[in-house]
Amino acid sequence: MTAVLEAPMTQADTTGQDDVMTQKTPGESRAEAEAALKPLGQQRIKLLAKLEEIEQELRPLIAEAVRMEVPYRRINELTAVAPNTARAWAKKGSGS
After folding, report:
1. For the chain, what is the radius of gyration of the CA atoms?
2. Which of 16, 23, 48, 61 is 20–30 Å from 67 (CA)?
3. Total count of domains within the chain
């Protein structure tokens, strides 16, 4: 029979202290999460600003389309503006 000699276990082996060296601090984890959000977040902010510009131009056109009796459903198909939004814009555009 052959005896198997094992190295004695150290405190680091039993408490998992070796793993602590590779763990991130909460601050590091938060910083990584923020860095991951930033590029798409900036892109979204720019798109929302562009959407607001487009809507400013679109509002009077939708108000006129409603005045010309274009159906709200058709306005939605052409612009992706919800019928209730189109109604509200048309109402504001008519001065009511």
Report:
1. 31
2. 48
3. 1
Closest CA to 73 of 58, 54, 86: 86
* Helix/strand/coil for 75: helix
12 belongs to a structural domain: no
Which pLDDT value is given to residue 96?
47
| Residue 44 near residue 50, CB atoms below 8 Å | no
Q: 3-class DSSP state for residue 2?
A: coil
- pTM attached to this predicted model: 0.64
Q: What is the mean pLDDT of residues 12-25?
A: 66
Domain span including residue 68: 27-93
Residue 79: is its pLDDT beyond 70? yes
Residue ranges of alpha helices (H) inside the chain are 11-15, 17-20, 26-67, 72-79, 83-93
Rounded-to-integer distance, Cα 35 and Cα 44, Å: 15
**Confidence label for 18 from pLDDT (cuts 50, 70 and 90):** low
